[in-house]
Design goal:
The chain is mainly α. Helix content is about 75%, strand content about 0%. α6 packs antiparallel against α7. It is elongated and about 65 Å long.
């Protein structure tokens, strides 16, 4: 069980660092949005480049912080129901949901995302909008990488639940 703990702590550190670094993207997002709003409102000048830059930054911020949110239990769940369950039942539900839903979904998104990205790179894809950003394949490359990071955090969560259910700290006298 010590090995499980070392693994999930190492994976947690990855999610923590990626989340902390990615959170800094909020600062340029604010500046880009302010520049876009001011230029539109006061100078009647719209910029497709600024709008696309906004959603590129948002995409990276939200996708790369998904594992961080999962690590800190900051994602959406039905807490009214969950809070009434025993810690052991919560662990079983978390483990089942991770193994049945999260990890397969992440693997599917990585698999599908890689072909999506390779196609984009092969086409040297850029924005269709006049004045849009070039190199669209760069932002598309974020998707499989972000789901890989979420997959790592899902593995960490599964290891934690296994440790809770079957480790030395598992409640004594209960059958698994």
């Amino acid at each position: 069980m010590d090995r499980l703990a070392r693994w999930h702590k190492a994976l947690d550190r990855i999610s923590q660092k990626v989340g902390q670094l990615t959170a800094w993207l909020a600062i340029p997002i604010v500046f880009v949005i302010m520049l876009d709003v001011v230029s539109r409102r006061f100078f009647a000048v719209g910029s497709v480049t600024l709008q696309e830059l906004e959603w590129h930054f948002h995409a990276v911020l939200f996708l790369f912080c998904a594992g961080f949110a999962y690590l800190h239990d900051a994602h959406v769940r039905v807490d009214l129901v969950r809070a009434k369950l025993s810690p052991r039942t919560q662990a079983w539900i978390e483990l089942s949901g991770t193994l049945v839903f999260l990890l397969p979904f992440c693997l599917l998104m990585i698999f599908m995302g890689v072909s999506f990205v390779l196609q984009s790179w092969g086409l040297n894809e850029h924005s269709d909008a006049p004045g849009g950003l070039p190199y669209r394949y760069i932002i598309k490359s974020v998707m499989p990488l972000a789901f890989f990071l979420l997959l790592l955090q899902g593995v960490s969560m599964a290891l934690k639940q296994i440790e809770i259910l079957f480790g030395s700290s598992a409640p004594q006298g209960e059958k698994s």
